[in-house]
Amino acid sequence: MNALQTRFDQRRLMLIVGSVIAIVFALLLSRGVLSSQSGDSMARYLPAYYGLPDTIAGYKVLAVMTSENTECIGIPGQQRLVIQVTEPDLDHYLSGDTYDVLQKAVAALGNSSTTIMITGPGADFETLVSENERWNQVRKQNGCFKLGGPIIIGTETTGKE
User: Fold this and answer.
1) In 3D, which of 113, 101, 99, 94 has the Cα closest to residue 50?
2) In this predicted model, what pLDDT tens digit does every residue of 15-26 receive, in sequence order?
3) Staple 70 to which of 21, 65, 103, 130, CB 3.0 to 4.6 Å?
4) How far apart are CA 74 and CA 64, in angstroms?
5) CA-CA distance, 80 to 115, in Å (whole number)?
6) Residue 159 predicted with pLDDT over 70
7) In terms of pTM, does the model score above 0.70?
8) Alpha carbon 151 to its chain's center
9) Over the stretch 86-132, which tens digit does the pLDDT of each residue have?
10) Do residues 98 and 85 lie in contact, with contact meaning Cβ atoms separated by under 8 Å?
11) Is 145 exposed, middle or buried (0-12, 13-18, 19+ CB in 10 A)?
12) C-alpha angle 84-89-94 in degrees, rounded to nearest 5
């Protein structure tokens, strides 16, 4: 497998994971598990709140998710930038160099724990914040969860070898 195919597969995996998260949100919304947005300030999602630019590599930073505004996000200090790309669909996004350009631009910001989450041209700030606030309420009620972990393969030793 060549390096180009490996990068393509990594991008596809990231987009699939993002799609799964969106499906989980949709299911929770449809079952009424998620309730209305809390009174938290929407300013905590704005890039300027964290001293970040509104655009990175020419793409809009729709929101910034951190441990301050998102339950169970991971390590303290992590920033997840929600980047709104202009490509109309997955194939156009994967066929271009958008991912590589964004990764380099985000790395240039200097925070090694900054990650990106990609959203399409139809997403809007208010809906994203509202869904994230509902997610926070569910996580506060039910706690954080992890999807799997490392598989450890080996044999146990008894010390009697």
Assistant:
1) 113
2) 776 666 666 655
3) 65
4) 14
5) 5
6) no
7) no
8) 24
9) 888 777 777 778 888 889 999 999 888 899 998 888 889 999 999 99
10) yes
11) exposed
12) 85
Computed from CA positions of residues 11, 17, 21, 27, in that sequence, does the dihedral angle turn out positive or negative? positive
Taking each continuous run of H as one helix and of E as one strand, the counts in the chain are 4, 4
How far, in Å, CA of 61 to CA of 83, rounded?
5
- Mean pLDDT value of segment 25-40: 48
* Phi, then psi, of 136 in degrees rounded to 5: -60, -40
Encoded amino acid at 84, one letter: Q
What is the token pair recorded at 45?
Answer: 């999602």
Tokens of 147: 């999807």
**Residue written as token pair 């998710």:** 65
Which of 73, 71, 81, 11 minimizes the C-alpha distance to 50? 81
Token pair of 121, please? 């041209």
Question: Closest by alpha carbon to 65, among 135, 14, 13, 10?
Answer: 135
Cα–Cα dist 14/8, whole Å: 10
Cα separation, 81 vs 9, whole angstroms: 21
Residue 9 backbone dihedrals phi, psi, to 5 degrees: -65, -40
Nearest C-alpha neighbor of 61 from the set 97, 19, 102, 21: 102
